[in-house]
Specification:
alpha+beta, about 15% strand, 6 helices, GIY-YIG endonuclease
Length: about 150
Amino acid sequence: MKFLEESKLMKFIEDAEKELFDISQITTINYQSSDTEKDEVLNTNLLNKISRKGGVYLIFIKASKSKTLLPVYIGQTKSNYSRQRLRNHLFKKDPRTGSQLESVKKSLLKEQSIGVNFVEIVPEILRHVVEEVLIRKYGQKLDWNKQGR
């Protein structure tokens, strides 16, 4: 079966890509202690902003003396898990998930900062397509995406 609106879909993905990689929209994650669980409270604005929204997110790192933000991980989440999913990556890992919390902690030990962009995808089911296309496109640069290598 052939999808007849491929050009519209690709335009949608390109628009999502532009938003995800827009450095002016990145939320820098506030870490003030060595206990990332305690730092969750400092970042409730981000978690509330994405709560109950299905979409795609991009995690960036920045070395302490650098001005360059490097994209390291693209993921997607359903609306009913969005807050929890980013929480698992950034503050407190649920053992049942494949979160990036250990990578975040290693980056923090290297005095790198962490930033996140989130794009809500409507209809939500398209989040899988957006994520897959972007991982294929940027896979070699996304050090934390195991399937992107």
